Amino acid sequence: MLFFIFILSTFLSLLFPKSKFMFYSYLFLLWFIAAFCTQCADRDIYIARYFNYVGFQKQTEYGFNIIMLFFNSLKVPFDYFLMIIYGFILGIYAWFIRNNTERFSFVLGLYGIFSYCIDMVQIRNSLGFTFVLIGIHQILKNKIGKEEYVKFCFFVIIGSLIHFSNIFFLLFLLSNRVSIKKNFKVVIYTALLLIIIAKANLFQVLGEQVIGKKIDDILGRTIDYSSNQIKSMIIAVIISFLLLISTIYIAYRNTKIASNEGSNEGKEKNEFVTLIMNSQIMLFTTVLIIPMMPDIYRIQRYGILLNYLGCSKYEISDVNKKVMNSFFYNFLTIIISVLLFYLQIQKLGNFESTFMSLMTNNKFL
């Protein structure tokens, strides 16, 4: 029952890209599915953390510990705690989407396809990413100055105190307001630097200074990943990147044509899409350190929401009729989101524990 409601609502959200009614109705459905799920991956782990946060201090960042301590002090039941956390996560996601595109319902529909189901399982990562989004919003909407950079860094650091891997979103700064050609040069230097830092275990040293010895557990170094699992992660990230970069590049060419024709709106959209494309390329550098820090593959997944926003800027105007028809481009982005779901949910063995558990274990349906 819930599965069919979800599919139908996702379809309607994509069909009516600018509908406020569909946007908020679909947002409520996403919250309802997650908030009243009685059994999904990691739920038992979070229950144990919530009621024994002192015992899990060595495996949990300070920020998330403080949040659990606060709710425990108010004697908030675990289920209510999750409802509030899910509401905050999806609320910030919705706020970010609503403020950065006119086709907000379409973007939320794409997110519903991927990566909603796994974001609702990896709660710490998703909660930390909400603060990253607040920081990114400062860069996307304001004329960049020292104040915006400071705000961005502040929110990324807050996010990393909830899940340390969010610190890698500082790479976003390196891709800001530069040409595509110049960005590739920055990527090469960044990739080499990341490998050197990871090989020298400097991430562990930094993490120990920020959140103590628990850093090894948090970054996944003590998790028993097999070589085949790591290979699968790397392959999934590489193919996902190629799919994402192909769709965002088409949007880049689309907005570039409008910009060259003198359209102010086209120029603004092109700057936005260029920033998103640069960030996708920059975040891709983290694939090089997956063998040393397996859980870092999640970084690219969280960047997918930005990619959806960039794709939403695609449209055909009077000065821009030489590119792909809008219908086919929208259809392409939907197909890409389905392929991403297959690569990172089905192929990595997360289908039953994430998507199906959300759809079949609801308290009311």
Number of helices: 17
Q: Write down the domain tally.
A: 1
Strand coverage percent? under 5%
Which class best fits the helix and strand makeup? mainly alpha
* β-strand number: 0
| Backbone CA Rg | 20 Å
Q: Describe the biggest sheet?
A: none
Shape: globular
**Distance between the ends:** 7 Å
Helix content: 55-70%
- The overall average pLDDT, rounded, is 85
Stretches where pLDDT is under 50 for at least 5 consecutive residues are none
Sequence of secondary-structure elements: HHHHHHHHHHHHHHHHH
Organism: Streptococcus ruminicola
Transmembrane segments: 78-97, 104-123, 149-174, 186-206, 233-252, 272-293, 327-345
Keywords: Membrane, Transmembrane, Transmembrane helix
Protein name: EpsG family protein
Task: Detail the topology: elements first, then pairings.
Blueprint: H1 2-15, H2 20-35, H3 43-51, H4 62-73, H5 78-98, H6 104-113, H7 116-119, H8 123-141, H9 146-160, H10 180-199, H11 202-211, H12 215-218, H13 227-260, H14 264-283, H15 298-311, H16 326-346, H17 351-360
